[in-house]
Amino acid sequence: MPTRRTLGYLTGIASILALLATAPGPVATAQQPAAPTAPATSATADYATAPTADTWQPPLSTRGRYIVDAKGDRFRLKSANWDGAQGSWTGSGSVDDPANHHSGQNSSGIPLGLDRVPLPTLLADFHRLGVNSIRLPFSNEMIHATATVSDSAVAANTQLRGKTPLQVFDAVVSALSRDGFAVILNNHTNTTRWCCGIDGNERWNSGQSTQAWIDDWVFMARRYAVEPRVVGADLYNEVRRDVLDDPNWGLGDEHDWYTAAQRAADRILTEADPDLLIVIEGINWTGIPVDGLPHERPTLAPARTLSHTLVNTHKLVYSAHFYGYTGPRHSGATGVGETHDPRYQDLSRDELYRILTDQAFFVAEDSGRHYTAPVWISEFGIGSAEAGAAPRAWFTNITDYFADHDADFAYWPLVGWERHDNWALLRYDSTGRRFGILDQGDWRGTAWQRLMTAPEHTGPVDRVPAWRMLVTDHGDHVQSLIERGRGDWDQGAYKAACPDGLRLIGLSHTAGRGLCTDTGADDPRAPGTAHTVVTDERYVPAGGDWASGYTKFQCPSDQFLIGYSRRGSRVSAALCAPARTPLGATGRTVWFDRSDNRPADAAGGDFAHGAYKGQCADGEYAAGIAFTTRVGSSGGPDALLCRRLS
Predict the structure, then answer these.
(1) Within this chain, do residues 184 and 317 fall inside the same structural domain, yes or no?
(2) Residues 214, 140 contacting (CB under 8 angstroms)
(3) Which residue windows does the record flag with biased composition (Low complexity) (predicted)?
């Protein structure tokens, strides 16, 4: 996990950090206007059939590495980012001067292009690209803005005159939904300042509290719960270091992205819209980009040892961003703040493929692990005016990787102004004429066409066992909605409970970690909310001492473990639920107080990195926890009673 940096760490480099405020984030490099090109004509490309409303059925959920629709059919996110509502001001000069906005494009805090092109025309062009989903960035400032947008900002869509930015956003969401697109809301920035350097938008709680950030998410999720094709909540964009501090993954402080995302996800799913996919991006940057000082792009690597478990097991999607001018340890800066680390575009094809797997795609490709989930590359892109051999090769290589690995993706950006942002897939001049990748002269078209038309998994996706970890590092991790509804079953202790439908199958000797699964038994719990909190040995039958000399918290007959609690490192209670069918009554003791004791195939993966751990076999359930409080012992779990499911 990344560690927090200290103030002393910054000694002698404050001037560098000040300059890093202008280091490029995604598509923030200085871009010259593209050379004039011919407007769209009949000699343009179509990449796929339009995704109509009857080709997929919301809501979306996950099965292993795949996203599926309500019918269980694979829904591959072939997406693009329609930006603008997150803001475009670069942070200096008058906000009213277009020259002070990214690429000279003043978005007015609403999706780009509404001043130039009617909404139906824009959506028709999106269909021609072949995309089936739109990542729609917004800022927290947009949510609370009360001033209406100028008439000029919606000149081509006069029905939007007199509306606030949020009301314009409403209209865009509704139009996209009606036209069959899946919409993923993305909290991109706190303010409407252009992302992503040192700009005041580094973290979800830069300039606001975590509580306010989550409240805004609950508001947005509730607002669009009536739109069934709003399918996802992309929690925050490119979490990264600010001037003084790194974000971290699991330290439990105010900079802990892992915990903040967990809290936001749970509140969205329980208070606003239980149908949404929850998209959690890895950490984009830690450290100071100076040769000799620690710095890196952790991306999704921390999920290997600490992954998220949501109240709905099948709603988690992980996300990452890749641009050619950045690198595994390169910030993307040029000049001051640039290091000698390679950029992604400096890597050979094989090196790039290895890095993509190591930084992100292991999450999808390692099946049957606690971190296994779909991976969505929610930003990548390049300019149509790019002439460099290395950046062009990178774009070909990364799109080939996405095609070969059947990856979910979202290009950045979708819409721009002609002679302003040549990165955009579609550019429009002031009269509404279209330019871009649909034109035959755009060099990106070949790679885009291969990406959009490569073989992919379609149709039904088989159900696969779910594996999820429980974490009581800094507090409760009760992911069962049934148990949340019943209240506090061990007041004052740190408590953990598996999501409904899963059972506890593994525990760690120290660290308070657990492993849940549904392998071999789909939702074995009996209907209702009954449970048993076990705090003594009353359910250990006479002659059934399966851990002699140890304290044993054993479930009653035909009940199975779904949770546990601890006070400090000591086991406090076992939480058991009744089974819907009779369970096996004979079992075995799995000891793990002196080493790991898990099945040979290690299904679920290492759910307590660095700690001894034990795990029942796939066809078993855990029926009891044994521990000791003798002098010199921690009181943590030492053994599990494992029994056959039937």
Answers:
(1) yes
(2) no
(3) 29-55
Are residues 347 and 487 both part of a single domain? no
> Is the pLDDT confidence value at 1 over 60?
no
Give the whole-angstrom CA distance, residue 140 versus residue 204: 10
List pLDDT tens digits, range 409-467. Answer: 999 999 999 999 999 999 999 999 999 999 999 999 999 999 999 999 999 999 999 99
Token readout for 100 is 């002070």
Cα angle 187-192-32, degrees, rounded to a multiple of 5: 105
| Domain CATH code at residue 265 | 3.20.20.80
Q: Based on the domain organization, do 502 and 426 belong to the same domain?
A: no
Are 431 and 477 found together in one domain?
A: no
Reduced to 3 states (helix: H, G, I; strand: E, B; else coil), residue 158 is helix
Confidence at residue 24, expressed as pLDDT on a 0 to 100 scale? 37
- For the chain, the domain total comes to 2
Q: How far is CA 27 from CA 438, 446, 475, in A?
A: 20, 21, 39
Question: Tokens 């494009």 label which residue?
Answer: 105
Q: Does any domain span residue 7?
A: no
Is 567 inside a domain boundary?
yes
Exposure string (b/e) for 85-112, b if CB count within 10 Å is 16 or more? bbbbbbeeeebeeeebbbbbbbbbbbbb
Q: Which two tokens stand for residue 47?
A: 């990449």
Cis peptide upstream of residue 39 (ω within 30 degrees of 0): no
Contact by Cβ (8 Å): 250, 259: yes
Tell me the CA end-to-end span of the chain in Å, nearest whole number: 40
302 and 369 share a domain? yes
Question: Residue 162: left (phi > 0), alpha (psi -120 to 50), or beta?
Answer: left
Strands (E), 484-636: 494-497, 503-508, 513-517, 532-534, 551-554, 559-567, 570-578, 587-591, 613-615, 620-627
CA R_g for the chain: 26
Coarse DSSP helix, strand, coil percentages of the chain, rounded to the nearest 5 percent: 20, 25, 55
Q: Are residues 185 and 302 in the same domain?
A: yes
Same-domain pairing of 498 and 440: no
Mean predicted confidence (pLDDT) in 588-602? 94
User: Is residue 271 in some structural domain?
Assistant: yes
Residue 459 Ramachandran class (φ > 0 left, ψ -120 to 50 alpha, else beta)? left
Residue 240 pLDDT grade (very low, low, confident, very high; cuts 50, 70, 90): very high
pLDDT tens-digit series, residues 493-540:
999 999 999 999 999 999 999 999 999 998 999 999 999 999 999 999
Q: Are strands 426-428 and 434-436 parallel, antiparallel or unpaired?
A: antiparallel
What does the DSSP assignment read for 424-440? SSEEE-TT--EEETTBT
The predicted pLDDT at position 52 comes to: 65
Give 138's strand partners: 187
Q: What is the pLDDT of residues 399-409, one digit of tens each?
A: 999 999 999 99
pLDDT digits 0-9 by tens, 76-135: 999 999 999 999 999 999 999 999 999 999 999 999 999 999 999 999 999 999 999 999
pLDDT for 153-175, tens place per residue? 999 999 999 999 999 999 999 99
Q: Can you tell me the mean pLDDT for 321-342?
A: 95
274 domain residue, yes or no: yes
Whether 215 shows a pLDDT value over 70: the answer reads yes
Residue range(s) defining the domain that contains residue 487: 467-644
Q: Which of 399, 419, 453 marks a domain boundary?
A: 453
Give the CA distances from residue 34 to residues 107, 383, 543, 581, in Å, rounded to whole numbers and listed in that order: 19, 9, 82, 68
pLDDT at 53: 64
Helical H segments across 188-315, by residue range: 210-223, 257-271
Domain boundary among the residues 425, 453, 481 is at 453
